[in-house]
Amino acid sequence: MERKKIETVCGYSCSTCDHHGTECPGCGETEGKPFWTAFIDIDRCAIYECCTNDRKLPHCGKCPDLMCERFNRLREDPNMNDAEVTACLAAMETELRSRK
Questions:
Q1: pTM value?
Q2: Which of 11, 14, 20, 63 has its CA 20 to 30 A from that of 3?
Q3: pLDDT at position 21, please?
């Protein structure tokens, strides 16, 4: 059975995350405090905070500064190499630019 696509403000889909449903209900459900924030000692995802709370946007695709420096947090993920990070960022940007 195919999982329903779960959209986030950053363009990453929680439905493709191995932790969704077990360790984390998703970005929207946690209001920007997904499971991984505890591992890097932050209270809330900076992308979520900026988009939702500061700029009051439905998602980053509506932001004139799309793909800002906040997205570079993915480069700090030790489980992803440079090629994987680049591919992930490109997919997120494509998703965000396609949203209305």
A1: 0.85
A2: 63
A3: 86
